[in-house]
Amino acid sequence: MSKFERDDGINRRKVLECMTWVGTGVLWTISGGVPHSLGIMGEAAAQEAKGLTFLQISDSHVGFDKPANPNALGTLEEAIAKVNALPQKPAFMIHTGDISHLSLAAQFDDADRIISQSRLDVHYVPGEHDFLDPEQKFYRERYGRAAKGAGWYSFDANGVHFIGLVNVVDLKAGGLGNLGAEQLEWLETDLKGRSASAPIVVFAHIPLWTVYPEWGWGTDDGAQALTYLKRFGSVTVLNGHIHQVMQKVEGNVTFHTARSTAFPQPAPGAAPSPGPMKVPDDQLRKMLGIANVTFKQNEQRLAIIDTPLAG
Amino acid sequence: MMRRAIAAALLGAAVGAGLAGGVPVARAQSPAATISIDNFTFNPQKLTVKAGTTVTWTNKDDIPHGIGATNNAFARSQALDTDDSYSFTFTTPGSYQYFCYIHPHMTGTIVVEAATGSNASN
User: Fold this and answer.
1) What are the residue ranges spanned by the domains of chain A?
2) Contact A128 B97 (CB under 8 A)
3) B2-113: which CATH topology?
4) Secondary structure (H, E, C), B95-114
5) Which residue of B41, B63, B99 is in closest CB contact with A174?
6) B68 to chain A, closest Cα gap in Å
7) Distance from CA of A129 to the nearest CA of B (A)
8) What 3-state DSSP class applies to A128?
9) For the whole model, what pTM was predicted?
């Protein structure tokens, strides 16, 4: 239990939950490091103690059939089975992009057929692989009808404000992910007037923080977005794209990337390129997975549990 | 897949005619050059050709790539899956910067020099 870095007490049930996860060989971390002076939740709110659990899946790349995983649809199905087996039904799911591999209608259809078996509401943001159809219209037609621009939007759940951003369109030569002026302006407006005590969850495909620019793992204007989030006491940024778990805490902002359900990618700089990584068959499912995120009203930090498809 | 890529290349050349003075590939018995995409890199990264040369990119990676020119100076390819190719015939001298529109940190340059023979395009 040495990784259970919490200073705010663990009740017996929580311990048992954690032991359950540990028992299934789960790699998990819990965010930390929020300065006390930024303490945000009032006593009254603390006493409500209402919780919210939601899921993140990412990078399902339906249609991928190369040696790194000849059956990406099959492992997505395994991930959804994992979701359905959770003892507590999550409130909803977010998908942080690269639903399809090549933006073919059949690939989106297959993804929807499997993901809908979770019977959860799913809030999507696109990856760069979801805008590859010649007219770049399938994603917006299927998932972004109610969204702004290329597909950005926000919503509220249990007092948490969720913001889905798009950083995979209109990419510039030599650059990284891109939000663009119009979206940044929308974000600033969306946050204006909100109480700094409102917990914020931002989700987008490419990491909003700079993970490894040599491989394009970052967002050129991500720092600008983060300046709008600085005044909030609890900010959680959930991304995909890099097909591995990575976490960083900077002040009151926790950055986290989720595993793919399709294929692993190498650690930054550990291979000549970030392409799909072929691992021995018995290792593959240890490197694919889902993330379970829990927010409790009396805690400033969201607990993120990354669960591989197999221990 | 190849069939689609070739069709795209022909379309690309036709569309490109208005942009960079391209000509349809099918007719041309033009010189040819190839660029291989390996490990998220264009090989060679800088290619110098004579005007009228048909350049063909082939994706050798297990992940799709796409060819897009800075300022749309020549026609954009469809997404190229593994082993797919895209061709474009460059008839107008100049320096063409391009990148992968899926992984924009991948960049390359094609320098087109005036053809010296009597077959120089007009």
Assistant:
1) 12-308
2) no
3) Immunoglobulin-like (2.60.40)
4) EEEEEECCCCCCEEEEEEEC
5) B99
6) 9
7) 8
8) helix
9) 0.83
b/e A133-158 (16+ beta carbons within 10 angstroms → b): beeeebbbebbbeebebbbbbbeeee
Name the residue facing A176 among B62, B97, B105 (closest C-beta): B105
Give the model confidence (pLDDT) of A18-32 as tens digits.
323 322 222 222 223
- B101, B81, B99: which is closest to A107 by C-alpha? B81
Size of interface A-B (CB pairs under 8 A): 58
**Smallest Cα–Cα separation from A124: which of A100, A94, A149?**
A94
Q: What is the pLDDT of residues A221-266, one digit of tens each?
A: 999 999 999 999 999 999 999 999 999 999 999 999 999 999 999 9
Burial label for A45, CB within 10 Å (0-12, 13-18, 19+), is middle
User: Tell me, what DSSP letter sits at residue A7?
Assistant: S
Q: Encoding tokens for residue A101?
A: 């591999």
Q: Would you say A235 and A200 are in contact if contact means Cβ atoms under 8 Å apart?
A: yes
Predicted local distance difference test score (pLDDT) of residue A4: 35
* Whole-number average pLDDT of chain A: 85
Q: Which pLDDT does position B29 carry in this prediction? A: 66
Contact B60, B82 (CB under 8 A): yes
Q: Give me the architecture of the A12-308 domain, per CATH.
A: 4-Layer Sandwich (3.60)
Instruction: Name the nearest CA neighbour of A10 among A26, A30, A24.
Output: A30
pLDDT of residue A48: 38
- The interface predicted TM-score of the complex, written ipTM, equals 0.81
